[in-house]
From TrEMBL:
Pfam family of the protein (one): ADH_N
Identification of the protein by name: NADPH:quinone reductase
SUPFAM superfamilies registered for this protein in UniProt: GroES-like, NAD(P)-binding Rossmann-fold domains
Keywords: NADP, Oxidoreductase
Length: 339
């Protein structure tokens, strides 16, 4: 990899302040300089996440200052790691740890992140595939393992099944030997779940507990709630006594439960917990194994569409409208270039 020129510039998507997609501005900014303990990465691709939509709307709190380059994940190659944690040219992903919030994130040709948020790997998969994986895999894997301790032979309800995390959770759960029930509000999206070999696709009209109990009279062993607090009571009712619901996502943008009264809200014997996590919840071996399985055809990466950096507003609009079935990915340059 050639050395960077002094005062070199890069293309980046800058958010000057909260607002609609018109606030996302593709411009030229200086390439950041890494300090010891940080890593400069040449970004090849990044996935879109609803948390970035929340930040764009101004919902991420006082820790976010503007102007800001969004993006809580990125995939690419190492340019420089002054403390020697990584070698130049090494393939890596970076995620979480304040990316795109307290410091600039992955919506750029280069990003500079703490070494603790960087995970190395080796793969010949296209960057459009690799870029879809890190945050989606971390969230799905963390929900299934750290929180639910999902085991072969159990049943799992994925509420919000056509989201990228929902589809990844279904893939991982099937690989672990679980029976998977996934929901979608749009019957036209059912085929995308069937393609993942989901055992039961449920059309979600706001209430799916009855459908679940018609299949499994006692209810599911575990559930991942990705829609939010609007559907959480029904998801709890779909879960068996001593089963566990993991609250992971908020696709509905409804974050809190008003006038929460636990004795009335929680079905007797059903456990409720939550997952947020960080990069440490995605071991490097898990990332490498998943990428290897994708390359060998043993696992799938659910990708909805791939965009160019110039199309960031279109990509955000598609995410905001809830039109995607799977992950939205942005390439910083033409596919196939590896830095």
């Amino acid at each position: 990899m050639s050395a960077l020129k002094v005062n070199a510039m890069m293309r980046a998507v800058v958010l000057d302040g909260p607002g609609d997609v018109s606030k996302l501005r593709l411009t030229q900014v200086p390439i950041p300089t890494p300090q010891p303990g940080w890593v400069l990465i040449r970004v090849q691709a990044f996935g879109l996440n609803r948390s970035e939509l929340f930040t764009r709307r101004g919902y991420s709190g006082d820790d976010v200052t503007f102007p800001r380059i969004l993006g809580i994940e990125a995939a690419g190659v190492v340019v420089s790691a002054p403390a020697g944690e990584f070698e130049a040219g090494q393939q890596v992903v970076a995620l979480m740890g304040g990316m795109g919030r307290t410091f600039d994130g992955g919506y750029a040709e280069y990003t500079c992140v703490p070494a603790t948020q960087v995970i190395p790997f080796e793969s010949h998969l296209p960057w459009s595939v690799i870029g879809a994986v890190p945050e989606m895999l971390r969230t799905a894997y963390g929900s299934l393992t750290v929180v639910l301790d999902a085991q072969a032979g159990q049943s799992l309800l994925v509420r919000g099944g056509t989201s990228s995390v929902g589809m990844c959770a279904a893939v991982l759960a099937k690989r672990r030997g679980l029976t998977v029930l996934s929901t979608t509000r749009n019957p036209a999206k059912a085929r995308s779940l069937t393609a993942l070999v989901v055992d039961h696709v449920l059309i979600d009209n706001g209430e799916v507990a009855a459908q679940v109990h018609a299949i499994l009279p006692e209810g599911v062993d575990a559930a991942i709630e990705l829609v939010g607090t609007t559907t959480l009571p029904d998801t709890l009712r779909a879960t068996r006594v001593h089963g566990t619901v993991c609250f992971t996502g908020m696709l509905s943008d409804t974050w809190t439960v008003k006038d929460f009264y636990p004795i009335d809200y929680l079905p007797q014997g059903v456990r409720l917990t939550a997952y947020s996590g960080d990069a440490a919840d995605l071991p490097g071996a898990v990332l490498q194994e998943f990428l290897d399985d994708v390359a060998a055809g043993r696992a799938q990466v659910p990708i909805d569409r791939v965009f160019a950096l110039e199309q960031i507003r279109e990509a955000h609009s598609r995410m905001e409208a809830g039109e995607a079935s799977g992950k939205l990915v942005v390439l910083t340059e033409a596919e196939g270039v590896r830095g």
